[in-house]
Amino acid sequence: MRIFKSRWLAIPLLPLSALYLIGWGLRRIAYLTGLKRPVRVEAYVISVGNLTVGGSGKTPWVIWLGEQLLRRGLRVAIVSRGWRRQSRGLRLVSDGRRILASVREAGDEPYLIARRLPSAVVIVDADRIRASRFAIERYGANVILLDDAFQHWSIARDLDILLVDSGFGLGNRYVVPAGPLREPIGQMRRAHEVVLTRFRPDDPFGAHLWVELRRRASCPVTRAELRAIAYIRSDGSPVGLDTLRGAKVVAVAGIGSPEQFFRTLAEAGVEILGQWCFPDHHWFRARELAAIEARARRFGAEAVVTTEKDLVRAQPLLSGEGLPWLALRIDLAPCAEDLPHWETLLDQVCRIVQ
Fold first, then answer.
1. Domain definitions of the chain by residue range
2. Which CATH superfamily is domain 2-226+334-353 in?
3. In the chain, where do the E strands start and end?
4. Is the dihedral of CA 298, 299, 300, 302 positive or negative?
5. What sign for the dihedral angle of Cα 310, 314, 319, 322?
6. What pLDDT digit, counting tens, does each position of 82-133 carry?
7. Which member of 101, 317, 324, 344 has the lowest number of beta carbons within 10 Å of its beta carbon?
């Protein structure tokens, strides 16, 4: 949002931000003074989160971390709140063998994680402590991976990973609602690792931000880049990137950072005839998808391309008889220069757990 980048436009909202800071400060003091204490569970806990509202690549980073931990033989459970899911309480999304919840019951991000990490236990619950204990007691999880939990102080963590989007940065540096920050910038020092996501070497803003984060943080600051891997059909089967190179498509995105998706899609070599943006976690209606397909045909498009997160929400409404719907699979992984750091760190985690 434009207001999140402008300090002047945000001035009328500063009194509300001051009230937010008071509430945040009282809660923080309660933990610092011991009035409230984080609960430790019987597993190694890794938290992935951010300082700002909106997208910063948490879901693809959780998927990458989960893949690396599972490859090392660890028993991984991913715990998420399940934002905008249509269920309550604790819900088992996947038991590590099969998916047990619908996308609406799980929420789009946990459902996507369960599809991408079929060997991981995936649980949604606003009570992260209860969900973590359930994963440990029922499935023997020895690593708990908390999705979007940097501000969730009630559960103790062994590794706190903070993500910062290289395209958006820290916005106008105000806390909500005047700015995008969930808490003051200085809280970055709580992190054990800071990752600058969606990093591009040719982007001067991202390069400058990397220097700033290294100055502000009291921990290693590494970079992660997006990589288009393949297109995914609605049934989950992959299609090579070359299959659509030069094709005319329309693009649909209901995520926190749609501009980055459109840019990556264009770089994959397709011709984008039209773009549609929806709010993050938007639950599509059948008439919306029909309207998109109708306009796509008028444009002469050969396919509709969206994100994986959007496709899992749209899939139950697709008849399979219209234009093909494909998702561009985009992975987030450490840049080559920073990969050895993460390999070493995750090897250390493996030794601690085992």
1. 2-226+334-353, 227-332
2. P-loop containing nucleotide triphosphate hydrolases (3.40.50.300)
3. 44-50, 76-80, 91-95, 121-124, 143-147, 159-165, 193-197, 221-233, 238-239, 248-253, 271-277, 303-307, 325-334
4. negative
5. negative
6. 988 999 999 999 999 999 999 999 999 999 999 999 999 999 999 999 999 9
7. 344
Nearest to 48 by CA among 95, 138, 113: 113
Q: Work out the angle between the directed axes of helices 339-353 and 58-71 (0-180°, nearest 10).
A: 60
- Please give the pLDDT value at position 1: 52
CATH topology identical between 2-226+334-353 and 227-332: yes
- Per-residue exposure over 138-169, b if at least 16 CB sit within 10 Å of its own CB, e if not: ebebbbbbbbbbbbbbebebbbbbbbbbbbbb
Residue 282 carries which DSSP code? Answer: -
User: CB pairs under 8 A, 24+ apart, for 41-44?
Assistant: 41/129, 41/132, 41/133, 41/136, 41/144, 41/155, 41/156, 42/136, 43/77, 43/132, 43/135, 43/136, 43/141, 43/142, 43/143, 43/144, 44/142, 44/143, 44/144, 44/158, 44/159, 44/349, 44/352, 44/353
Tens digits of residue pLDDT in 187-243: 999 999 999 999 998 899 999 999 999 999 999 999 999 999 999 998 889 999 999
CA-only gyration radius of the chain, Å: 20
Distance CA 316, CA 293 (A): 16
- CATH number, domain 227-332, options 1.10.8, 3.40.50, 3.90.1570, 3.30.40: 3.40.50
pTM as predicted? 0.94
Phi, psi of 348 (to 5 degrees): -65, -40
Tokens representing 251? 């693009």
